[in-house]
Amino acid sequence: MTARLLTGASLPLNDRGLAYGDGLFETLAVVHGRPQLLRQHLARLRLGLERLQIVGLDLAEVEATLCTMAATVTASAALKLIVTRGEGLRGYTPPAHPLPHWFVQTLPWIAPTAHTPPAAVRVSSVRLAAQPLLAGLKHLNRLEQVLARLEFPAPAVDEVLMLNGQEQVVCGGSSNVFCVRDGQLLTPAITDCGVEGVMRASILQACATGEIPIPARITCLTIAELLSADEVFLTSALRGAWSVASIDAQPVRQGAVARQVAAHWQQPDNRTSWVAP
Q1: Global pTM value
Q2: What's the rounded mean pLDDT across residues 225-243?
């Protein structure tokens, strides 16, 4: 049996994604009919399916559906793909042979922020729980991010920063974090919690190959280190690279690396043809 594509507006009440957040999602940017960073999104989805032991989803069919829906977009939009384990009876134990559900929504476009004012961000008091089995994945359990946004709603605050239990920076509520220090591009490790964004991965790859001519390193970072950095910016598949102007109302120095990363990402070949390692 293979996964079931849901084409209506309803979800079965006993769907495990609804009951337990038992599933995954990906949000893709679409520009002029072409899904951006599609291979990276599919690679992360494949990893999530393996990690959660969800079987029966035909990734070739998913890719074809995303491309078909993207082709109908004349300017820009976002596609949100949701995959759940499917229906199940009461209890956490999944059925022996569940039939996954999946569906795709077309959502309004969020314009890249390369030419918008730098972001004002706040540090959330919500700490990300450590769970290496879920770290990096776009699973459907986003309650920590929901609580963080309740604390600092948009649009009053552009983004929230999420820390772990050791007071180290992990990521933004819906973004990854980079800073520039001593001529290096630094980003927090995504090993115990947080989402490993496809933009983050593509930037690290571009730095490794010299396409972005600055060395990059994954390391531990604190808020104090971000505040003293030469530059701080956020990344996401929809927004690209977004410079940070302030953290908890304390100003952050501005630099040129975010603009360099944004310019690299704006090249059509870089957005569509990069292959995940």
Answers
A1: 0.90
A2: 94
